[in-house]
Amino acid sequence: MRKASLFFVFLVLMLSLHAFSSMYAVTTDNQIVLLKDDGTWEAVKEAVDKYGIPKVQIDVPFVFENIAITIKNIFKYGDCIIFDFFIFNNSDEMISMDYISFDLRDIEGFNYDLRTYSSEAPEKYINRRLNGKIRPHGSLRGYLFLEISEDIELNELYVNHSDFFSSKTAVVSIRDIKIETLK
C-alpha cells in the first residue's frame, strides 16, 4: 500500500511538472516544489509583501484551493493590458471558468475587472482567451484583458472562486512584475 501511495505521489508530481513546462510542480497537498539541479525537490517558500500578501513572479505558480495559477506573462498593447494565464486543476472535480474571476487593484486602490474580450487586443490573443472548463488534473491556458487608457501601476491580483455553496478569494501581489510592450 505504501509503495502504491508513493507511486501515486510521484506520478502526480511528474504530471504536474509536465503541465507547468518548467521546473515547478504541485504536490497532492497543494505544496509548490522546485526541481533542483541535483534531481531533488525543494519546497518553494512563498515571498510576502509588507502586508503579508504573497508575492508572485512570472512563470511561478501559486495555489488557490485546488487550483495552481501561473502568470506566464503580462503584455501591454495600446490601451490594453493582456494577461497570459496557465491554470492547473489539482482536484478530482471538473472546474468551470464561469465560477472563477480575476480583479486587479492598482497602487491607488482602484479596482479593475479582467475580461475575456478586448476590442483593442490583437486577434491572436482574443482567439485564445481564458474560458471553458478544466477536467480533473487537467490544465487550461489563455488570455484575459484589461482595457485602460491611462498608465496604472498594478498592485494586487484578486482571484475569486464562487459556486452555489461558497465564495473564496485569494490575493497576491503583482507589484514587482514588469509589463512587456507588444509592438
TrEMBL record:
Domain DUF4352: 87-168
Keywords carried by this UniProt record: Signal
Pfam families xref list: DUF4352
Signal peptide: 1-19
Name this protein carries in UniProt: DUF4352 domain-containing protein
